Structures are given as structure tokens and as C-alpha cells.
Prior knowledge:
The protein has helices at about 5-10, 10-20, 115-120, 185-190; strands spanning about 25-30, 30-45, 70-75, 80-90, 95-105, 140, 150-155, 170-175. The mean pLDDT is about 95. The chain is an alpha+beta fold.
Amino acid sequence: MRLPRSFYARTSLAVAPDLLGLHLVHRDGATLQIGRIVETEAYMGPEDLAAHSAGGRRTARTEVMFGPPGHAYVYLIYGFWNCLNVVASPAGVPHAVLLRAVEPVANIASGTWGPGLLCRAMGIDRTLNAIDLRGDVLWIERPRGNGPAVRIGTSARIGVEYAGEWARRPWRFFDRDSPFLSSCSAAARRRAGIA
């Protein structure tokens, strides 16, 4: 069952840890790709200098962040990688949660440990920007039955050193037991039997 709009209509700091253990689902034709969310980062614009909406910056790219909650914000970094964010907070408050990693559950054949790899493995690109996450193409749902327990860890966010003190906020949330985290070493993944 897709998450209700009210789930997303909270601050990104509330939404980010609550996404851990839930399933990200992408319907690609007749195929459902499913990944268990194991790593997120909260962005609290406009105050947060690490957020794309820092200072209330409203551009064609960031416009979706100012809209209603529960939509996808997909953008390109380094001219190559797509990144998927979940728009949070009520309309007009530009918060977002970056999905950094998922554990493959169904129909995912390549690495998903990092936001760019996640999007590549699940066929998520900018054509899905602004899509409603309560629709029939891309959504987040609670797993059926009892999924593995989540032991939540926190740390500073990754790759936002330019944001000064904001970069040190412990707004990265992750399942401490997952070998699919973007911060796991290749050796740790090999020990867990992941190619």
C-alpha cells in the first residue's frame, strides 16, 4: 500500500529515518523493481546551506521542492548521475530527503549503494522528476509481512563539505546492519556475498 500524503507532509528530519525499511517501487512496463530503503539524507531548506533550496532559491530545477509533499525530485549531478529525492513538508517549505541506497528485493540486477547507482539500477531518471509518489509508476510502500528490523544509525551527510557547519549535522540516516550502504567498503560487501 502506498504511503499516505500525510506521511510526507512533515519535516525532512521526521521523514528521513521513517523511510528506512520501506520499499521503493518502480513500475517499468510489466516489471516491478523493488528496493528496501537503507540510507537517506535530510535537507532542510531554505536555512540548510547544503540544500538546493538554500536561501529560498527557487529555480526551474528546484521548483518541485516548493510544491506539495510526496513528489519525486530527480536531478543530475556531475553531468552523469541521477539522484532521487522525496519532497517533504507542506507546500511552500522546500524540504527533501535524498535516497542514498536500497537493498534489492525484486528485479534489480546491479549495485544500489549510492544515489547514482540506485537510480541507474532502478531505471530512475529526470523523466520522473515531479512525479507523484502516490501514483502507479514510482512509489514507496510498507513491505508486506514482517521485514527485517532496522537499527538506525546517523552521521554527517556525504559530499556537502562546502556547506560549512551545515555539513556536520547528523542528518544522514541508515540501517546499521545493511551491507548496501554507500559507505560500506568493497571488502565488507564481498564478505556479505554481494558482487
